Structure formats: C-alpha cells, structure tokens
C-alpha cells in the first residue's frame, strides 16, 4: 500500500497580510509567491520594516507589470557618490559623524531563470514613484548635508531581488538612468 500524503501540507504558505486582498489575483500566482518569498527574506533575514507588496501604481492606479515590494531597510541601502563626498568633508571639518537615516526602497522580485530586457525594466521604473509610499522616516532638516540626493530629490532606484533555485536571494541596486561612478 502506498504511503498517504496530506496534500494540504504540500500547499504553498498563505500570502502575508502585506499582500492586499483586493489586488491579490491581479498577477499570476507564481509572481505573487515570488514576491511573498522575497518579502519574507527581507523581513526575517535582513530586518526590514514597513514592508508591503504593491500590485498597482500608487500615482496612477494602473496595474504594475508585476508585484513590487516597498519597505524600510535597517540602514541606508545606497548613498549617492556626491552625497558621500559631502558627508566625508563635513565629518572631517567637524570631527563628528553625520547620521545616515535609512530611506524607503522599492524591491523588484525576480527569479534567476527569467530573461529581462531594458524595455521591461523601463516599464517598471515608469510605473513607480521616486520614493515608496509611507516612507515614515523623518527626512533631515533643510540645511543638512545630502538633502539634495534624498527623498523626492533622489534618482529613481530599486533593489533587484533575484531568487536562485537553491533559495539564495541576491540584491542589486538599479537606477533609472546613469549614475556617475564613485571616486576611489
């Protein structure tokens, strides 16, 4: 007699509350599960907070090409090269470190087996606002260093989250356009 298997145990785990029910069926199930897996990794392995999965554009209400995650990392994920230079100069001049508050980030869930084109990436960037909604970090005051590279002043960017078949996830920072390289 063959061993019995409870099929309910093999089912995918339920989607997190961050996946808003009204739009839960807007994308194929595999994209929803991919976004859920990446969100789980950000929350439990990388200590991100304020995580949410978005299926529709916050500004237009249009369906996004695929689910995208927004959240707040525990530390700044990216510092613009010019901001880094200004920060180092200020720290040198004053002798005190400049506090680098984290900023809300977009995260694009992908799988290693997917083939992406520039047109597909452009469609994602076009559908997103510069900063995610509910970026609850108090931005630095008016005259602070780096203000011109933060918040709505920053260039559009996202973290490309790529899931491998062995469940490893790697993150790459992508910008919408060209960013000048860091100086060594």
UniProtKB/TrEMBL annotation:
One of its GO terms (biological process) is tRNA-type intron splice site recognition and cleavage. Keywords: tRNA processing. Residues 38-184 form the tRNA-splicing endonuclease subunit Sen15 domain. Pfam families: Sen15 (PF09631). GO terms for cellular component: tRNA-intron endonuclease complex. It comes from the Eukaryota. Belongs to the SEN15 family. This is tRNA-splicing endonuclease subunit Sen15 domain-containing protein.
